[in-house]
Amino acid sequence: TELDVENARTDWYEGIVKDCLAVARCNGITVWGVRDSDSWRSNQNPLLFDGNGNKKAAYTAVLNALNGGAVVTSGPTTTRPPTSAVVTTRPPTSAVVTTRPPTSAVVTTGGGQSGTCSATYKLIGSWPGGFQGEVTVKNNGSSTINGWTVPMGLPSGVSISSLWSGVQSANSGSITVKNAPYNGTVAGNGSTTFGFVANGSSSTAPTVSCTSP
Questions:
Q1: Which tens digits make up the pLDDT trace of 98-121?
Q2: Rounded to whole angstroms, what are the CA distances from 193 to 6, 118, 138, 179, 184?
Q3: Could you give the CA distance from residue 15 to residue 172 in angstroms, rounded to a whole number?
Q4: What gap in Å lies between CA 125 and CA 107, rounded to an integer?
Q5: Model's pTM, two decimal places?
């Protein structure tokens, strides 16, 4: 499904590719993000390219495993030609937490706006002791904004364990989330999102608002 590996261990990435090649119904491998800086686990450097877009040793290990591996089919084992070596990537904005299955989504709006920028919170899913949320930042004006900040009030007992597509000031209490380097420019009437996983109860929604230069 979706893949990242803490610290991009080459032996793990190589082993995963070989495991896929050994299973006839494994048709591809999707890496969860392109650069480490795009990952929701960016502090763990889990992807095939570093934050500057440079190939890592894990990238070479994956490519070598694909080029040299054997494909299991319904008949005799055949060799995979090098031209079929493809690793696809999922954009970071599509991040979905797969370690805990979410419950049905509940939409909660809150916060407000300053100038042309507004923010809306949505509960993606919850489980005992935690939940996943998403905040949509919308440009309500006709002119492009360059940079946004979302003041966010987390309920008592709630703390953020990971956040993607934004830069947070703290993990609990009254925090601010600023745009990531790649999603600060929002066209007129356009929007962007950031997401997070939190520890604690989802029964009380975080409050959000938005400011822009």
A1: 444 443 333 334 445 455 899 999
A2: 25, 12, 9, 9, 10
A3: 38
A4: 10
A5: 0.52
